[in-house]
Structures are given as structure tokens and as C-alpha cells.
Amino acid sequence: MLLITCPWCGPREELEFRCGGESHIQRPGPSETVSDESWGDYLFTRKNPKGMHYERWVHLFGCRRWFNVARHTATHRIEAIYEMHEPAPSGGAL
What we know:
Elements: E1 3-6, E2 10-13, E3 18-22, H1 36-44, E4 52-58, E5 66-72, E6 78-82
Antiparallel strand pairs: 1-2, 3-4, 4-5, 5-6
């Protein structure tokens, strides 16, 4: 079980949270210039690294706020937790 530290509520068990997928994804646009291939990549193509991965999480059974987590996918070790408006921490590839 992961212990995740919500930036607003403090440390809580993983059961209180839900992962929202990869973070720092840029929506293509403007919409009238985006090809079907680019739009499909935006919707469905995600990284699946063995190593550092940047994810969005929501404290579903708490404050209901979203935040980002830098987590190592092989060890599940959480390297950083930071707010949605903050850039990804350095030291890992996006």
C-alpha cells in the first residue's frame, strides 16, 4: 500500500486516491488545424516507462483536489508531490 501525501490534507493511504493518468500532456490546437492522427495520439497514446513517471492524482475521499506525483513505476517510490500548476521536478524525463 502506498502512503501518499496530499498537499492539502497530509499523508493518507492510497485507497483515498485515484490516479488520473499521465500528467503534463498538452492538448493540440487550434481544433480546426489538428489532424485526426494528432488528435488520436493526444487521446490514446501515453508513455509507459520503467522508471520515473509523472501522473495526476485526485484525493477522491478527502479534499477532492488534483495534484501531480512523480513516481518510479518499478519500485512505486514517490519521488515528488507537487501542485498542478507547478512544473515537473528535474531529474527525470518527461
